[in-house]
Amino acid sequence: MLPIREDVLRAAVFRNSRSGGKGGQNVNKVSSKVELILDIKLLSTLNPEEATLLQERLAGRLDKEGLLHIVSQEDRSQFINREKAVVKTLELLKSALQVRKKRKPTKISQAGVRRRLINKRSTAAKKTMRRRPQEDG
Prior knowledge:
It is a single chain. This protein has helices at residues 5-11, 25-29, 48-57, 78-97, 110-130; strands at 12-17, 33-39, 67-72. It has a domain at 5-97: Double Stranded RNA Binding Domain. The chain has a three-stranded antiparallel beta sheet. The model has no long low-confidence stretch (mean pLDDT 86). By secondary structure, it is of the alpha+beta class. The chain is elongated and about 85 Å long. The N and C termini lie far apart (81 Å).
């Protein structure tokens, strides 16, 4: 089951800090950068299999304690950055939980092989025509 927004908000911890970028004096005064820290194990809407699957698929994004960090500092407003961080988290969790289709290996058709060989021959002929003619000795 996909995590619900309220469930993510309950399990998440928000950390605010000053962000760089546009904003002029505002950047130096206002803590508008938002970091969402989420412990996947605390999401109540996930069953244990889904939680382990998320930890496997998001292993590269988790820190040593198994916490997921999402940062948003695009906007000058702390509130908007907080909303963007929650949306990013939900999208990330949704994409990580999607069942991926298994690839079916296919054989190249005989017509495809023929086309490739004809193309190779024509390219080779074109390149031989570009060579300097050899002098007879």
